[in-house]
Write a structure and sequence with these properties.
The complex is a heterodimer of chains A (397) and B (169). Helix content of chain A is 9%, strand content 40%. Chain A is mainly beta and 397 residues long. In chain A, the strands form 5 sheets. In chain A, strands 1, 2, 3, 4, 10, 11 and 26 form a 7-stranded antiparallel beta sheet that branches. A 7-stranded antiparallel beta sheet of chain A has the order 5-6-7-8-9-12-13, with no helix packed on it. The longest helix of chain A is centred in the first third of the chain and has 14 residues. Chain B is mainly α. Chain B contains 8 helices and no strands. The termini of chain B are far apart. Classes of the chains: A mainly beta (397), B mainly alpha (169). At the A-B interface, helix 1, helix 2 and helix 3 of A face helix 1, helix 2, helix 3, helix 4 and helix 5 of B.
Chain lengths: 397, 169
């Protein structure tokens, strides 16, 4: 038996992953060590001096420490409380409920350029756990990993060739990954180990306007050229060519920005279509694949329509919105514009509306119960036609 | 800690963190994050005493053993149940050795931290009972009775291992 126990323990131990930054963590935390802990350590030091354990030299089956970043990183404490800033839109204080947090947001301004060209430019703000606020950043795209411990950022001029992995707590870039092609967006894989970056030959959020009051718009061809899958632990970035989806087909996409996303389980990618269906699925090498069975996604996003316990499904845009069971029977209606994400099995984050829901752009984030009876304002309401702001929703734990 | 000490500490961590993580992973019942916390706690304390510790790895391991047991004691006082999630168990045909090991992992994950620590010290670290007792600050009798209870609990959790486990007592 002892052989079976020893073999089992050896085999199991070999599955431990080795964080590369243990020394940094220990040295950083040393400054915060409470006096009591130090006294305890002194006591132990005396006791230990009499032992001499043999050092275990055989570590060949353990994944070695690398120069990359240890991933995934999850929070040490689980948070599910409701946090809001109902006075402000965009918010100044953390917005979160259940297992979803508003981890970052962008404010978009439209700029006039020469030759009838105009472009959208985003300013990104990122959640700062040190004081539960949002901090404005200089980066051109931002996404936060599940657990809110790491962020991926793009440095550049509108699009960029450098992707950084940021420690949310220290605000230090842990590693930079240089790319041959410029990327215009980044998104973390659901397991928090990889970053998907969509590459463009030119900044996609620009178009030409014509006529009186510049009401006629000509959207240029999409400039998407491919994508990278970045293994954050090793820093390896694998590039795959992928031209834009045509605007003529069905599915198809007439938008110049065609950012890729991950499937819910991280096994596939999807590219957006603005003609039904809203997604075309690809394997990680870019080959088209059949869509996963069932309509599992909030429209045009990578978030799940299905509640964490698998029993309920978020419905399409309202007002009113509705939530159904898996058979399609309505279990609750809500006075909201859109259902965005499940906070837990009983509540969803939604785009709420002011007054009688007359203006779809005059809205703010709310937490709404399945039966629609409880609505908690999470951000201020704001006419999103002016200084549009868009949120990034991220699993909190 | 001056620059030379810090360099020495970093070299120690670089060389020995795989072994410490393996130990932490077992002590926490296969919990990667728990193992990182445990190793980090030990290394933080080691860093504070770096100049005075003669056997740094033994010191770090000692802290990990005791820390794991003390966390468990504190949790018990708070009325919490400390329980790492065991991996999915395989189906009915568990005759193959690799399947037996998977069943045993699931059972080990269900032990209390104290029971698992004693099993790890006895069967992974290969320490004799009297050294286990000194490491944990208890009597040899307590080590033996805890070992006995741990194996009995493994047999209870995974009856298909009962025959195999008999030989270990």
């Amino acid at each position: 038996m002892s052989r079976l126990l020893r073999d089992t323990l050896e085999e199991w131990a070999s599955e431990a992953r080795v964080p590369h930054d243990l020394a940094d963590r220990a040295l950083r935390r040393r400054a915060w060590l409470p006096i009591g802990a130090t006294v305890l350590a002194v006591g132990l030091a005396v006791a230990v001096a009499v032992f001499a354990f043999g050092l275990r030299g055989d570590n060949t089956t353990v994944r070695p420490a690398t120069d990359g970043v240890s991933v995934p990183v999850r929070p040490t404490v689980t948070s599910t409380d409701v946090r809001g800033d109902e006075e402000n839109a965009p918010p100044r204080k953390l917005v979160a409920a259940g297992n979803v947090a508003l981890s970052a947001y962008s404010v978009t301004k439209t700029e006039k350029l020469e030759g009838n060209w105009v472009r959208d430019q985003r300013v990104w703000s990122l959640y700062d756990p040190r004081d539960d606020t949002y901090e404005q950043t200089p980066w051109v795209w931002v996404d936060v990993a599940p657990g809110l411990q790491l962020a991926a950022v793009v440095e550049g001029d509108l699009i960029g060739k450098k992707v950084g992995i940021l420690d949310m707590n220290t605000r230090q870039i842990k590693t930079w990954i240089g790319l041959e092609h410029a990327v215009g967006s980044v998104v973390w894989s659901p397991d928090g180990t990889k970053v998907l970056a969509t590459a463009y030959s030119e900044y996609p959020d620009r178009w030409q306007v014509w006529g009186k009051d510049a009401r006629t718009m000509t959207m240029p061809e999409s400039t998407r050229i491919g994508y990278y899958i970045i293994d954050v632990a090793t820093g390896e970035a694998a590039y795959h060519e992928l031209g834009p989806m045509s605007g003529d087909g069905s599915p198809g996409n007439s938008n110049a920005r065609q950012d890729l996303g991950w499937s819910l389980d991280g096994s596939l990618l999807w590219q957006p279509s603005n003609i039904k269906p809203d997604k075309v699925f690809l394997d990680l090498d870019g080959r088209q694949r059949a869509a996963p069975v069932g309509d599992q996604y909030v429209y045009y996003t990578g978030r799940s329509r299905v509640s964490p316990d698998g029993k309920l499904v978020l419905g399409r845009d309202g007002p009113p919105t509705s939530i159904t069971d898996r058979s399609g029977a309505v279990v609750g209606k809500q006075s909201a514009l859109q259902l965005l994400a499940w906070a837990d099995n009983d509540n969803a984050l939604a785009l709420g509306c002011t007054g009688k829901c007359g203006n779809g752009f005059d809205s703010g984030l709310v937490l709404v119960s399945v039966d629609g009876s409880r609505v908690t304002q999470l951000t201020g309401s704001h006419d999103r036609n002016n200084d549009r702001w868009d949120w990034v929703l991220t699993p909190r734990n | 800690m001056d620059a030379a000490d810090e360099q020495g500490f970093r070299e120690f961590v670089s060389a020995r963190s795989p072994a410490l993580m393996r130990l932490g992973f077992l002590l926490t019942g296969g919990d990667q994050h728990g193992a990182e916390d445990l190793v980090q706690t030990a290394l933080t304390k080691l860093a504070a005493k770096w100049q005075r510790v003669e056997a740094p790895e033994a010191y770090a391991r000692q802290i990990m053993y005791r820390q794991q047991v003390s966390w468990w004691r504190a949790a018990v006082r708070r009325g919490e149940v400390v329980q790492a999630a065991p991996p999915d168990l395989p189906g009915a045909d568990r005759t193959h050795q690799s399947e037996l090991r998977m069943v045993l992992r699931g059972a080990l994950a269900k032990l209390t931290p104290k029971q698992r620590t004693v099993v790890v010290l006895r069967y992974f670290e290969d320490l004799p009972d009297h050294q286990v007792a000194r490491v944990l600050g208890c009597s040899v009798g307590t080590v033996r009775s805890t070992t006995h209870r741990s194996l009995a609990r493994l047999r209870l959790i995974a009856p298909e291992l009962a025959m195999e486990l008999e030989a270990a007592t």
